[in-house]
Amino acid sequence: MPEQIPVREGTFRDGSLLANKCRACGQTFFPKADLCLSCSHDVLDEVVLGRQGVLYSWTIAHMPASRFMPPYAMGYVDLPEGVRVFAPLIMEENRPFRTGMDMGLVIEPLWIEGDREVVGYKFRSLGEGGAS
What we know:
The chain is an all-beta fold and 132 residues long. The chain is 0% helix and 49% strand. It has strands at 3-6, 12-13, 16-22, 28-29, 44-48, 52-61, 72-78, 84-89, 102-113, 116-125. Strand 2 and strand 3 form a beta hairpin. The radius of gyration is 16 Å and the shape is globular. The protein starts with a strand and ends in a 7-residue tail after the last strand.
């Protein structure tokens, strides 16, 4: 089995995304920030984000990117903690994306670099839900 490395250290743990929350104003940041981007306070506490959210917007790319071959989907998912996460989306046959549909977090390999798998986060549809 190849060695697995995270796409970005400190972004996820035990199948959940990690963010931080400002002690002064309560703003939550993902990925983590070094200081509050709202009030500049420098004390932020780590928080674990929910694993389910709602699809805000998406696109399907038909041109290759450095590590993703077309077609591939990217989108924004709103999480209950008030954070909007930009992430790859898992495309499934007979399950088109719809604004407002329920999405679930998946932690899995994104690509291979030499003898290592780069692991990151994606979202997949949890069912119909949402508006057309």
